[in-house]
Amino acid sequence: MNIGIFTDTYFPQVSGVSTSIRVLKEELERRGHKVIIFTTTDPKATALEHNIVRLGSIPLFSFKERRIAVNGWGKAYKAAKEHNLDIIHTQTEFGLGLLGRVVANMLKIPTVHTYHTMYEKYLHYIANGKVLKPAHVAYISKSFCNQTSGVIAPSQMTKDTLLRYGVLQEIRVIPTGVEIPEQDISGAQQLRYELGYTKDEFVLLSLSRVSQEKNIAAVIAAMPEIIATNDNVRLCIVGDGPERKVLEQQTRDLNLEDYIQFTGEIDPKQVYRYYQMADLYVNASESESQGLTYLEALVNRVPVIAKYNDYLNGLLTDTCLGVLCHSDEELASTILEYMNYTIDTELAEQLRASLISEISVATFADRVLDLYNSAIAGYNWHLQHEQNKLTPKYILKSIEKIKDEIHD
């Protein structure tokens, strides 16, 4: 199968969307499918890339790390035609997502769509939330999804949101596949040493894009209460983003420079080492639709402390995997209580094995391919059905059917 993936976000831009696409691309290619990524240009993307079509782009106003294509639509159509695409998989409702839909219409092939982002949590990036409102998000999402041949929701929570928006197209819940790393105890110990942590120190890990919606400020704000009880706790903030300088200033204001460090952006291939060197993964975000970092933490045997939502409540099925709190004010006490919790390692491994089976890359690819095949079959049937409507034979059959119904 020849598959075109249209996305505004791809490496070297680091994000959950980029990771999800890369994982899917590599697994599909391993199975013999051809995958072409259509995405934006990026100043950091200088090396020759196989089967990646980059379109001229500019930074997205107040979201500078992300880009939007401004030209190259003809280039995209030409490349899609040359690669003889069977299906287009869009990963955004804007920019490249709209282009993907146009190209699919021109080539007369179906589109499927993954709905990644809970946009209601990101409206502050556009004129401080004064232009786009939740009602606009609902309308745009509904309109886009209903013009596809199938929608992927990374979680039941996302599906429920789309149903609330009025999406009528089929929605399948397909969690993003997570690469399952080997446990590297010596590597984790080495990284702890490199980061300056002793064996006695308890390391909290924050790993994500460093942005306002990730609510890392709440984790930093919890540190004085935590340290007052246990002076051996340290916080390692991994990643980069627009909020980093603000958070570094918050750290200085609270005199926490000895307890908190910022690593900046790291090589995605080294992410597993950071999870494995930590004692607890902490995330206070309320904007996650699929929580890829939570899944990564769990498969790397790191318990999770996070803010409550329905998705996470179904994921953390036992305390040995982690616990949830309902407010920023509860973070410190939740972390301190969990530090004293004795984990049932045998049960944790059983639950983790079950989780791995559900979110493995192979399972992810199987489910996506099943949707592709259904979408292609349904689209081809629809095309044939529409073409048949123009034939005298179809019209005569329709008349006979109406006569039969009247007679009955």
Quick structural gist:
One of its GO terms (molecular function) is hexosyltransferase activity. This protein has 408 residues and is α/β, with parallel strands linked by helices. Helices cover 45% and strands 17% of the residues.
Characterization of this structure:
There is one protein chain. By secondary structure, the protein is α/β, with parallel strands linked by helices. The chain folds into two domains: 2-177 and 361-387, Glycogen Phosphorylase B (Rossmann fold, 3-Layer(aba) Sandwich); 185-348, 3-Layer(aba) Sandwich (Rossmann fold). Helix content is 45%, strand content 17%. It is built from 15 helices and 15 strands. It has helices at 16-30, 73-82, 95-107, 134-145, 156-165, 185-195, 216-229, 244-253, 271-277, 292-299, 310-315, 331-339, 345-359, 361-388, 392-407; strands spanning 2-6, 34-40, 52-55, 57-60, 63-69, 87-90, 111-114, 151-153, 171-173, 202-207, 233-238, 260-264, 280-283, 304-307, 322-325. A seven-stranded parallel beta sheet has the order 3-2-1-6-7-8-9, with helices on both faces. It has a six-stranded parallel beta sheet with strand order 12-11-10-13-14-15, with helices on both faces. The model has no long low-confidence stretch (mean pLDDT 91).
